[in-house]
Amino acid sequence: MAKIQGIGGIFFRAKDPKAMRTWYEKHLGIGTLPNSPWGADDDAALIVWRDNNDQDKTCYTVLEMFPDDDSEFFGSSSQEMLLNFRVDDLEGAIKDMQAAGAEKVGDVMTIQSGRLARFKDPEGKLFELWEPKAGF
Asked: What is the mean pLDDT of the chain?
């Protein structure tokens, strides 16, 4: 069985994404990092944490806000947020989710930071499973 290692990303809608990013950075310290694994010019707001099984391993959770009218990323106009779960074995997690009745949405995607798959839970809410590549 695949294991969830943590939250890879928290994505939600905002009336003013730029203002909300500024607020989260000012009041919670969640902002861009000069040593972002995505590159020096990346502006993703990141939460840094350590892997429980390997304290030398740095991990990241992305916090990103999208405009209220962006329904493409969220899969529907009624979904307000999307969670991305970091997994240790994407293929195993896909099999586990399909056996549990979760609906797989689209193909596995290869992205800069690894691979991810999208699913709908039993209530139809979209979520992602992400297997990071080394360094993420």
From this structure: 92
Among 82, 92, 62, 108, CA closest to 12: 82
Domain-embedded: residue 91: yes
Q: Is residue 43 in a domain?
A: no
Q: Report the distance separating Cα 88 and Cα 2, nearest Å.
A: 6
Count how many domains the chain has. 1
Per the DSSP assignment, residues forming a β-bridge with 118 are: 105, 128
Alpha helix ranges (H) inside the chain = 17-28, 90-99
Burial class (CB in 10 A: 0-12, 13-18, 19+), 60: buried
Owner of token pair 């909300």: 20
Using one digit for the tens of pLDDT, what is the confidence trace for 98-136? 999 999 999 999 998 999 999 999 999 999 999 999 878
Distance CA 36, CA 123 (A): 35
Tell me the one-letter amino acid at 84: N
Distance between CA atoms of residues 77 and 128, nearest Å: 17
Are the CB atoms for 104 and 118 separated by under 8 Å?
yes
Question: Is residue 25, in this structure, part of any structural domain at all?
Answer: yes
Cα gap 30→96, rounded to integer Å = 32
